[in-house]
Amino acid sequence: MADNVSTEQRLQRALSQLIAQHASDSMPGKPTATALCQIAGVSRTTLYRYHPGVVHALHKWQHKHWGRAAPSQQALTALREENAALRTQLGQLAALVDHYFAAWSESQILLQRREGELAALRRSSKTKLASVRLESVLNPGK
Length: 142
Description:
mainly alpha
């Protein structure tokens, strides 16, 4: 290519050539930034740092023509989404467990306190507790 052609123009021509090669099936696989840089004769650093428009055009073309993922990739994506949903549910379940454990602990403390109060009342009243059974009420002689 001529020396007076800018890097931007070389990249644009290389992108057109790369797309044409992939459209004619003469080049297998997905068009990559590496292949684009090899055709244009520039480094990947130059491409990404100084020519984001060309990178955007390449990505746009890739997603348009190669957007469909392979079945294994689709399955992987579905599993990752399910994993994320399960992590969310796990977090919610952990919060519920914490809530119910705190409620149980508080209930235990209250029961212990009430049992202590009842024991103190029994000791201070010195009264004999009477058993109330249905038999003793109906048959007082027994």
